[in-house]
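Why do we care about 3D structure at all? Because function follows from shape, and shape follows, mostly, from sequence. That is the central idea of this module. The next example makes it concrete: a single protein chain, its amino acid sequence, and then its structure expressed as tokens.
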Amino acid sequence: MRYDAVQDLTTYVISHKQNDTSIRALRNMIDIAIRTASGSAKASAFLDDPFDFHVLLSTLSFEASKYHVKRFQRFMWTQVSLSREPIVKSISRIS
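And the structure:
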């Protein structure tokens, strides 16, 4: 974020990978806000506080990371389950 006091202009630079789900969700939220806001409120729909975009994007990124963590946990449990099968079979053959 960069603020130019002379022009009273705040610039947000958001770097992201292509088809980032958080950015897509943020764009959808902005589109809905612009579509539903009245003419005079469109410009200030998300700009009441300079950190509104930051908070929204951080929240979206946090929610996305929870999804990826759960997916990774399921993958790891699958790997653990698969690695135990041969051990259980070999133990049952021995006894």
